[in-house]
Amino acid sequence: MRFLLGLIFGIVLVPLVVLAYLTYGNVPVAVSDPPFPHEAQLVHMPLNARIQKEMVGTHMEPDQPTLTAGARIYTERCAFCHGLHNKPAAIGDNMYPDAPQLLEAHRNDPSVVGVSDDPVGETYWKVQNGIRLTGMPSFKTQLNDTELWQVSIFLANANKPMPPAALEILNRAPAPPADAPTHPPAPEPIAQQ
Ligand code: HEC
After folding, report:
1. Count of domains in the chain?
2. pTM for this one?
3. Is the beta carbon of 103 within 6 A of some atom in ligand 1?
4. Cys staple from 147: which of 123, 127, 143, 181, with CB 3.0 to 4.6 Å?
């Protein structure tokens, strides 16, 4: 009997507590709010499991035509959020989760640039399918399969020297939207009489 009461109590009470929490106005919803406890682990666990299940490989080589085509796609479709080297994208920095700057070396390990330490098939999966609830779009309908691999192979090799044609595309690309320069100091208030 006590067990049954406890069960009913739990079935009613738990949703009520959850509802109260959701409607109380304290749930982190703004970009600058702190993360939920263990949010990153909770979100990445199912994503990684799915990618492990579906990840495929490619026979395409990281040769000059592939890297150059990848650089072009990156500057046209991705730099807006993921930035160029030394030109961070303010839009990606101000998202939650933020869009990582994929052409910058990692602070704790400068031999890694962006996702160059991830298997190329993992990056291909993410670009093809997008990542739900993060703002990372799916490019399935915007890029054909060759283009999806080109940009993925380009990112997988971002820590290696790029062919001159790819460098030229990257250097000439317009800088992604940046943060506003700090505002000029406010004018002196007019003295009141
Ligand atoms: C509208 C902004 C936006 C655009 C445009 C965009 N992305 Fe993303 N991307 C994101 C965000 C936000 C994340 C972070 C997702 C997360 O943390 O799970 C992300 C994550 C990724 C990741 C995973 C990074 C990691 O550390 O695992 C890869 C790879 C990636 N994007 C590649 C691309 C490529 C390639 C393009 C262009 C074809 C592109 N993205 C365009 C917003 C964007």
Report:
1. 1
2. 0.90
3. no
4. 143
